[in-house]
């Protein structure tokens, strides 16, 4: 189902499909009309026909099991090298890697060698002891694909938080990446001003000026400007926090006040019915110590 189709599109079809056909035997007893009806809207109908045909062959020739031989698996309709390796790894935990675009990119970046200059089969053979030493081959097949798709993404790899960045040659050597890395980590200093009243409520607003926190319930928050802090605000605590690529250094101030500024609402410090980000929750917890 995932060939040429995004995961989010496939999910409802997949659920419907496995609910209806719980086993290979059940699928093999279906017919083209029924399968195509279930596939309606997903496109590439040859996949559906192949799947039905595969089920019939597996039931008839392989006792409803996936063969262990790659030669036999590749005889199944629609199954080439990639699918055969994926199946052997995922189903039989065989030491194999399904080499798709995501996996190629991950290896290529790690070695800092262009994809077209890598013989992936040789590379895997040469490194098989290290690659497969955990014996969790099914997990490895899946993890490599997911890692390439979600972390070592084509345009904007998440190198900063990547667990491979200490050994990744691309990250270490490529100037562009280093520039991105330097640009990515930003230190920011903020002051947060909490108005609290005697009913143990805090004034929060969604209308703060901090772009990455827009639309969250927060107290007043400004970039630090020590000179502009009114002496009525009492310093409470300093926090260090990280949000995506920002390293935040935050000073928390408070004052008791019954005045609610425009576009603020009172929220109980102890019982919050509306969604507040976990960062705000931390602040609320700290403020309860004032009472
Ligand atoms: S450090 Fe960056 S380029 Fe290297 S593997 Fe991780 S995400 Fe990919």
Describe this structure in words.
This protein is an alpha+beta fold and 291 residues long. Among the domains are: 100-184, Endonuclease Iii, domain 2 (Orthogonal Bundle); 186-288, Nucleoside Triphosphate Pyrophosphohydrolase (Alpha-Beta Complex), CATH 3.90.79.10. It contains 13 helices and 6 strands. Strands 1, 2, 3, 4, 5 and 6 form a 6-stranded mixed sheet that branches. Helix 6 packs across helix 10.
- State the low-pLDDT regions, or none: none
- Gyration radius (Cα, Å) is 28 Å
Give the amount of beta strand, in percent. 15-25%
User: Under the CATH scheme, which architecture of the domain at 186-288 would be assigned?
Assistant: Alpha-Beta Complex
Overall helicity? 40-55%
Outline: elongated
What is the structure about, briefly put?
With 291 residues, the chain is an alpha+beta fold. It contains 13 helices and 6 strands.
Q: Which SSEs are present, and which pair or pack?
A:
Blueprint: H1 7-20, H2 24-28, H3 32-39, H4 46-62, H5 70-73, H6 81-92, H7 101-111, H8 120-126, H9 128-131, H10 137-150, H11 169-173, H12 175-184, E1 186-197, E2 201-204, E3 220-223, E4 234-243, E5 246-256, E6 265-268, H13 278-288
The protein binds iron/sulfur cluster.
Iron/sulfur cluster (SF4) binds next to helix 7 and helix 11.
Keywords:
291 residues, alpha+beta, Endonuclease Iii, domain 2, Nucleoside Triphosphate Pyrophosphohydrolase, six-stranded mixed β-sheet, 13 helices, 6 strands, elongated, binds iron/sulfur cluster
